[in-house]
Amino acid sequence: MPVLGDHAPPLLFLASRFEEGFPPALLNARTDARSAISPWCDHLLEAFDPVLVNAAVDAACAAVHKTPPAHPTAWRWRLVGAALAMLAAGNLAGCLTDLFPRLARFRGLLIGVFMAVAFMLTLGGRWLDPTPHLRLQGIAMPVTFLLAIIVGRLRIQRWSLAALGLLAMGVAVCWFKAGQSWPAFVFLVCTLLPAPALIAGIVIGWFAARRGSWLQGDIAMAIFVGFVPFQCLELPRMASQAPASHRAIRLDAKLLDACIGEYEIAPDNAFLTKTKVAIRRNGDHLIWQAFGEAALPGPLDLYPESETNFFLKINGAQVTFIKNDKGEVMAIVHRMAGLLPDSVGKKITDRTAGY
Question: In angstroms, rounded to a whole number, what is the distance separating the alpha carbons of residues 277 and 290?
Fold first, then answer.
């Protein structure tokens, strides 16, 4: 939730109607900014949404008094070309098994591999700029194949898997919107990624089984469903720093008691709304309990690594207590190294109101 200052260019927020992690209503509530909300995409597709991309380009050009370029339309033909390429690849694999009967036993394998390669070359390569997550792909393919065999033994139609995936995704969206729960967000991502691939995989499985067997359809579906979602899951690898190791020390009880109180964090990029933090002592460490829309629920253990620096054991976040010349704690700084900007909370009382 940035504040750019008096002489900055106009602030523009870009989001999607189905954003899972940041409610667009919070953006629309800002009176000092303009919002561009895409009506049809979600969090994973925001970076590629033409409505948002075009709005960003127009705003950037306006800030430097340049005429914006014409909005690109080639992406539509790119999508059409990708769909035709995958259809052609599947048809080519089917024709090979017709021309060479000895390959009939590998019909499902050929169709699945051909269509997965076509996807990688047209959508999963440089256009989206990800790198494949080979470990997850290697796990997802046999798991999908095993589930497909179980579904076949139970005489359940393949289309019911797509319906189940869409239902799970809808439940996750409602759950996350209602409680802003991080477990729900993880569940949402896990259902959101495979759902479109599952629908396409069911069609591919039907195509492979049409002139072959149900087993060949399962093989083709497992290859495509296991490969495609995780082809776009991992971002380009960058040099990463090893996470800092934290070692708890023992502090005098008086130093811990000086940190006790209630703090208030203003809305920012880490805490979406105003958040209150209650800190109390529990033996040789502190207890952190935050109350806000994006706060981790429940009391969390906060251990000292110096007189002013503490860390949360649950996620390694650092909390620094800011003191004045008299040694009195006046504020806290919450820091998630390399992930989110620092958040500052001012002390509002020395008591915790019985939390």
Answer: 4
Neighbours of 318 (CB within 10 A): 18
Q: Give the 3-state secondary structure of residue 120.
A: helix
Strand (E) or helix (H) holding 42: strand 33-42
**Position 50, amino acid:** P
3-state helix, strand, coil in the chain (%, to 5): 45, 20, 35
Q: Is the pTM of this model over 0.70?
A: no
The string of pLDDT tens digits covering residues 190-205 is: 555 556 777 788 888 8
Summarised one tens digit per residue, pLDDT across range 106-118 is 999 999 999 888 8
**Range 196-203 contact pairs with CB under 8 angstroms and sequence separation of 24 or more:** 197/224, 197/225, 197/228, 197/229, 198/161, 198/162, 198/165, 198/225, 199/162, 199/165, 200/224, 200/228, 201/144, 201/225, 201/228, 202/158, 202/159, 202/161, 202/162
Residue 163: which of 195, 192, 189 has the closest Cα? 195
Please provide the DSSP assignment of 258-300 as one string. Answer: TT-EEEEE---SSSSS-EEEEEEEETTEEEEEEESTTSPPS-E
